[in-house]
Amino acid sequence: GQQLNQSPQSMFIQEGEDVSMNCTSSSIFNTWLWYKQEPGEGPVLLIALYKAGELTSNGRLTAQFGITRKDSFLNISASIPSDVGIYFCAGHKAAGNKLTFGGGTRVLVKP
Amino acid sequence: DAGITQSPRHKVTETGTPVTLRCHQTENHRYMYWYRQDPGHGLRLIHYSYGVKDTDKGEVSDGYSVSRSKTEDFLLTLESATSSQTSVYFCAISSQGDDQPQHFGDGTRLSIL
């Protein structure tokens, strides 16, 4: 079953806002990945994290590998309408294991 | 996209019929994966391959089989489709293994009536 909990499940953004989402687990992970999926397309890799405490940016996106290795965070600064989509976290626990995916955070634009 | 083509992109078929989905990659990557995506379940691994003729089962493999006769092609077969297999199916590839980023195709939306 799903071992990664993403929150919030959905959020509304207003242009210019900074937004945050996170991914947590009761297990330790060695790799954290963040993907974005738009309608009718497959997930696209945004950021990959490989060390506890690591902070990595990709444009307006910043992700962090939690110190406990049980969580990861994704921040979007100065939101724009094209940030709409579903953001997935994925983690890899140890050799022999496959990637585990979270259920996604759906980002929508405030009406 | 990372040189991954899934076909067909959409398919509607009837319960009990066989269905084959194709994933074709032009990246020469060794690792290939099939996932299904359903509301409330995220992405779940069906089968994976570490190379030609080297495949294994994932989390939700019942009712599915796969074949990989060439590096570039990974086929997913539903021998006798059931309505519970209605889903969006994604193929993914990786150059370096399970702990490295996977790159996804655009999916096949399969409806079984």
How many β-strands of chain B, per DSSP?
11
Distance between the termini of chain B: 31 Å
Q: From the helix content, strand content and strand pairing of chain B, which structural class follows?
A: mainly beta
Mean pLDDT score of chain B: 94
Give me the oligomer status.
heterodimer
The structural class of chain A is mainly beta
The total count of strands of chain A amounts to 11
Measured by DSSP, the beta-strand proportion of chain B falls in over 45%
Low-confidence runs of chain B (pLDDT<50, min 5 residues)? none
Question: Main interface pair?
Answer: A-B, 24 and 24 residues
| Biggest beta-sheet profile of chain B | 7 strands, mixed
Tell me the number of helical segments of chain B per DSSP (H or I, 4 or more residues long).
Answer: 0
Helix content of chain A: under 10%
Order of helices and strands of chain B: EEEEEEEEEEE
Helix share of residues of chain B?
under 10%
**Secondary-structure element string of chain A:** EEEEEEEEEEE
